[in-house]
Amino acid sequence: MSYLSLSDKDKAEMLARTGAGSIADLFCCIPEEVRLDRPLDLPAAQSELELVRTVEGLGRKNAYAGLLSFLGGGAYDHFIPTVVDYLSSRGEFVSPYTPYQPEVSQGTLQVIFEYQTLVCQLTGLDIANASLYDGSTGAAEAVLMAQRVTNRNKVLVAASLHPQYRQVVRTYIRNLGLEAVEIGFGADGRVDRDALGRALDDKTAAVIFQSPNFFGVVEDIQGLSDAAHAAKALSVAVVAEALSLGLLEAPGRLGVDIVTGEGQSLGLPPSFGGPYLGFMACKKEFLRQMPGRIAGQTVDKEGRRGFVLTLSTREQHIRRERATSNICTNQALCALRATIFMETLGKQGLREMAWQNAQKAAYAADRLSAVPGVKMRFSGPFFNEFVLDLPKPWAAVDAGLRAKGIVGGYGLEADYPGIGSAALVCVTELRTKDEIDRLARALREVVS
Amino acid sequence: MIKEIREPLIFEISEPGKRAAELPVLDVPAKKDLLAGVPLRRELEGFPEVSETEITRHFTRLSQKNYCVDMGLYPLGSCTMKYNPKINERLAAHPAFAASHPLASDDLVQGNLEVLKKLEGFLCEIAGMDAFTLHPAAGAHGELTGMLIIRAALEARGDARKHVLIPDSAHGTNPSSAHICGYTVREIKSNDKGTIDLASLEEAMTDEVAALMVTNPNTLGVFESDICRIAEIVHAKGGLVYMDGANMNALTGIVRPGDMGVDVMHINLHKTFSTPHGGGGPGSGPVGVTKELAPFLPVPVIAEKGGRYALDFDRPGSIGRVRAYFGNFGIAVRALCYILSLGPRGVREIAEFAVLNANYIRKSLEGEFHLKYTTASMHECVFSDKLQKEFGVTNLDISKRLIDYGLHPPTMSFPLIVHGALMIEPTETESRRDLDLFIAAMKAIAREARETPDLLRSAPHVTYVGRLDEVAAAKFPVLRWEKKP
Amino acid sequence: MYPNDFRYTREHEWIKVEGDEGVVGITDFAQHQLGDIIFVELPAVGKELAARQSIGVVESVKSVSDVYAPVPGVVTAVNEALGQTADLLNKDPHGQGWIVRIRIKDPKDLEGLLSAGDYEKYLEGLEH
Q1: What distance separates the 2 farthest-apart alpha carbons in chain C?
Q2: Distance of CA C96 to the CA centre of its chain
Q3: Residue of A328, A351, A355, A397 best to disrupt the B interface, most CBs of B under 10 A
Q4: Is the peptide bond before B75 cis (omega within 30 degrees of 0)?
Q5: For residue range A290-349, what is the model confidence (pLDDT) as tens digits?
Q6: Could you tell me the pTM of the whole model?
């Protein structure tokens, strides 16, 4: 299938206009010796019908599709109202570029402005950017930002921060003279406050933690922020499950300086890890150190309200090597989906959805921990996921559940060596009571 | 576009009690002491309350205030705004892919891993590189990944070195990405053809230089004809060549970076491989490397054995993870669909007709607008406002007037070496009719610049808003809606 | 236009000597080139500045420029008013729009700078 729009007559006439004798002549500036002298070794072109068969065939190789899943850990299965797909599929949203020409981009710009407002409301902070790639790179950007704000070179990273986010942070900082020190967790699953207290010093730029953390446990955000501030370090909270903010107090009201996280829960499908939506909000005094695009409100000559990308001197296209970040795009279409999602759910709906997650997870925790030999690993409060200690190796439990058509959770041994047979189980509003009961029954059979 | 519809912010039409979504009644017993001891919020203060009708009208009206590729030519130089095939959207949204979870074990997501592995292979073939990673979420993220790979490779050799050379025509992300990898940036001057000056390069290329970052064709749309010699100079001093593949649309099927001495490169799937720009993302910036550099690729790497796919984390030389999970998978699905649709000949036609269309525009507008560099153009051509300046008309005025003709302006903000730049990239998917409409508009504007320059200076005239006060926006930032006290 | 009692640099900074201190700002030419200035990043008082070291950064809507120390010295005061009203650099670049005061390390360093007349000649050269 070709997407060209030129007829043979067009091609001939246009070529004549350029003065080139042939298409090949247009490439005369490329040295002969490096030109490719053969056709590319790619499969033959396919029509739409053939393409659908090929690609749906690949899709059928994903056995995951037919299973009942309780996976979470940074990617969540949530209800997405139909209007989200419908409206975000409009070509006027899907096919424009970055809104550098505000007069013909007011749609995208107003959406970003509304998105920034919603992120501020959700996080309880003053300002938000137009989005970053995802939660993991958001965490890395927040660490770099804390270094710029404080001029300090050590960062304390909670071990209960998503393992993959921690790895990304390490990759980003490896050439920037920043040291990352990991802080462990206690029996409640929360950050080990004694260890934190020992590690905090006058070189610490920030304490970065996740809440609800990778184990699903809600941290004592105010306590962590107070500890960080006592050492004049920043408190950086990562929220990998954005929906939790519908119910839990806004981190900005609990002393946090920078909130960053993953917005996938807000209207984006899990899609094997991407595209996702990194969000970031902070106190207004850090505005000039915040990475990423920002939209702002202004007026035209007639006094009509309009929106523009603003404060762009922070960014790479102007500040070049001294920019706050090398990030060039945001995730505009993902931010649009999140905006439609949040506005559709609205004040009552988002809270209701978050509340149902917490209720169902609590019910599931009760049912599952009632299975003989199965125990809750941590005593701390949790939102929509929790860790179970299992009486048999996770590989065996997983295989047993799989045989019953269930993906029961995510085994933690690979990311937390020494934790034993423990699995992270996530329950969202999409899981029904019957499905939770089915998991409990299956688990009972598998571990007995 | 209808001019008079002014769409309020959603917060301004919100009224208590309205809803656009409902959930089923909770089907488990509700706990009273849920999350005991945890601070909970009383309500989502400021969150809107509207109906589904209002949501639909709000976003439909907002969408109508955007220009987009589906409406017409979008000649933004270096951005490659080509048509986005619709079937690719549908297939990427297929539940088999969209509902799959990134923490599911390998054996449950063999289809996804095959999609990624296939696309890696296609990109290797098109770029002439030995291995690709699909982790980077955007072009700039690819640059960062590529430069981290260079640094890791040089460190493994014993010396990471200090500097990175970047031509003065480069995009701003290049110096910024090099900086995050701990390198200082040294600029290389362009010669009068707009390409890298070999003598300057030879002088600057010392054993303290880690790499040269080169965009080819460069941001003037000019092919670096000396690319093989450039690579030799860099390699002779033990440095590596990084190619920014932003302009890959000029090369597909014609020449491969790997055959020109490039060691590392990134490709923008949202440019060359037609995935939509979405108003500024999501994109995807896969990075390709030679086999010598493959050990340094980010983890995990997808390994194939007898038609089964598995994730390989055992990569001691790896730079680590650059993003959680596997990059922007949904974008990879779209790019795979695109390459499968086009086939070998179609991929070559991308470059052929992108270059034909750009040269057709260039030839048609020569004389009307000034060309600082007369070197042959590839997929884009860079005019300037030099001829219009004498009437007090700038590239900004020309661009804003184009909007009145129902078209999107070209790129103006770079390359920095052309003052008043008008960087035009039509792409291969445009019809002659649309190209001619653009050419006619530009000619009319050139005439207006001479005869009625005020018409340009006050443009655009047909949009919902006129030119906006960007000084006020930056000076007195209003970055969110707030409830009036 | 350019006060005779100031000394100038080719990068468009000025310095007005007052005893062993000097007041530093950017020239009228510089502010014209930059356009509407919206933000000035100021150094900390007490910061030691080598010759040609960046004092701070001046930002307009779409550009960022370093301001350099004309001569080595130590920052003794910064123009706090610029925090709220960066446009003083546009309105009164040679007066209220001053950026920092420095204690001059060695008055001899001033000899390398341009006089008002030389600076104006230098600007004429630039415009061709």
Answers
A1: 41
A2: 12
A3: A328
A4: no
A5: 999 999 999 999 999 999 999 888 877 777 777 778 887 789 999 999 999 999 999 999
A6: 0.96
